[in-house]
């Protein structure tokens, strides 16, 4: 199966924007203030690798179904994702603070070395189940019918964002506006839903 750098770049941009105000970004930040950032990032990246494989595999399995229902399903997922992001934008900062408290408690263990990797993996692995970025990754596989490119774009986006969280998360949180990022991501999702609807209708 071929690889499309354009598809990977589009997926990278969308997933990165969705992930920035996400609770998993906050989790990485909090863990990195308690343990060595490199070990945290390694554990988080391993968790993202597994979860991205799960999302891409699910999208690939659904993609074997008849084309029109699959496109409709993908469009509905984009629509739901856009609505969730836009509706939750006003509470972005409050949710960020709640997530920080939650993961601060989970990351209070006195562990060292590879145990930090294991702890970070377990926390992020559980936090990512059913996460919006995971759902969107599966939907993007349905949209582009290119699981390899979608996997590369989504995984690199998650790794890059988590790396920012590990190295400069606190600095970023004081300067970025989570509500604005969510609104941008929500609008992008709605545009994808609209484009999918146009394709299903046969207008294009």
SSE string: HHHHHHHHH
Low-confidence stretches: none
What kind of sheet is the major sheet? Answer: none
Q: In DSSP terms, counting alpha (H) and pi (I) runs of 4 or more, how many helices?
A: 9
Give average pLDDT, whole number. 81
How large, in whole angstroms, is the Cα Rg? 17 Å
Q: Structurally, how many domains make up the residues? A: 1
Molecular shape: globular
Helix content bin: over 70%
Write the layout of secondary structure elements.
Elements: H1 5-19, H2 23-34, H3 37-62, H4 67-88, H5 92-106, H6 114-128, H7 132-144, H8 147-175, H9 178-201
Helix pairs in contact: 1-7, 1-8, 2-3, 2-5, 2-6, 2-8, 3-6, 3-7, 3-8, 4-7, 4-9, 7-8
Structure description:
The protein has one domain. Helix content is 84%, strand content 0%. It is built from 9 helices and no strands. Helix 3 runs parallel beside helix 6.
Which tags fit this structure?
204 residues; mainly alpha; 9 helices; 84% helix
Please outline what is shown here:
By secondary structure, the chain is an all-alpha fold. It has one domain.
């Amino acid at each position: 199966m071929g690889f499309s750098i354009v598809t990977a770049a589009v997926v990278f941009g969308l997933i990165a924007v969705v992930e920035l105000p996400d609770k998993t970004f906050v989790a990485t930040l909090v863990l990195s203030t308690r343990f060595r950032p490199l070990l945290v990032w390694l554990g988080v990246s391993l968790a993202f690798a597994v979860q991205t494989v799960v999302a891409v595999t699910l999208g690939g399995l659904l993609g074997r179904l008849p084309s029109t229902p699959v496109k409709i399903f993908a469009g509905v997922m984009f629509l739901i994702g856009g609505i969730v992001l836009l509706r939750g934008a006003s509470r972005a900062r409050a949710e960020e603070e709640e997530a920080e408290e939650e993961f601060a408690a989970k990351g209070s263990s006195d562990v060292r070395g590879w145990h930090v990797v294991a702890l970070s993996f377990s926390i992020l692995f559980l936090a990512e189940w059913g996460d919006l970025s995971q759902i969107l990754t599966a939907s993007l596989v349905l949209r582009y019918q290119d699981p390899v490119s979608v996997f590369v774009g989504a995984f690199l986006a998650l790794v890059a964002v988590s790396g920012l969280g590990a190295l400069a998360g606190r600095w970023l949180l004081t300067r970025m506006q989570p509500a604005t990022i969510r609104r941008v991501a929500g609008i992008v999702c709605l545009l994808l839903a609209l484009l999918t609807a146009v394709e299903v209708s046969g207008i294009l």
